[in-house]
User: What shape does this take?
Amino acid sequence: MYSMSGFGRAGMAQDGREISVEIRSVNHRFLDINLRLPGALTFLEKDVRGKVSERFKRGHMDITFTYRNMRSDAHTVRVNVPLAHHYAEALKLLPHEIGIKDDLGVSHLIALSDVVTLEQSVEDEETLSRLALSSLGTALEGVLRMRETEGKRLLSNLQEILGRVEEKVKGIERIADTMPLRCRETLVQRLKALALENVDEGRLAQEAAFLADRCDITEELTRLDSHIAQMREAFHSEGETGRRLDFLVQELNREINTISSKATDAHVVTLAVDIKSDIEKLREQIQNVE
Assistant: This one.
């Protein structure tokens, strides 16, 4: 079992190039990748998403890459001399037109738009790809280890809660066999208390049988036992177990609601309420299972 909560970070450097990646993972119904790449690495988006999808099937994942190029050939400074010349010629007219001192210098010219531009050199995409994807792989391993560790904690907690559910279901089962008979006896006693005359014994037997059947929760208990067994099996199955567990929790809740509505025994009602509380705790924990 794996959790969907995890964190991983890694980085690599080579020949003045440094790439690092940080991954944060939280629960989500599907695999949702929020990827942030610097401009020099945007060509890797498809490869990055593909590698993440190979490892994980569910979870919201924030993946952030950073890149630094400290090589001497990383940038080129270019001066647009013709444009600077045009600026200078035009600005020479200003002192005479508006009566100010002519102090035009190079520092003024280079501050003007597009006279000096900083161009980024063409990157070595093969090297960047190797560094970025290698860093990504290491960071994903970190996320996987954390999700596995958190998954073990989740498994222990889920087993403990399910154990409590199972014990309470057994408590209901010990009472369940007597419920139909007690329902029938309750009906008979109420009729006697009313001191009704000329009661149709056949109709009385029919109503008592109907009420006894209404109180019978054998099928619901059988399905509860089956769902509990399936959950224990799912705890140790490979792959995506979260969706299956979520479905089984819904089925547990459905059966216990039916039992609660049928129950005429106060102790059964109390156990059913306790089980509902435990089922809600199961549901909360399962939301973070991959």
Observations:
- The chain has three domains: 6-71+124-146, 75-120, 151-286.
- The chain has a mean pLDDT of 85.
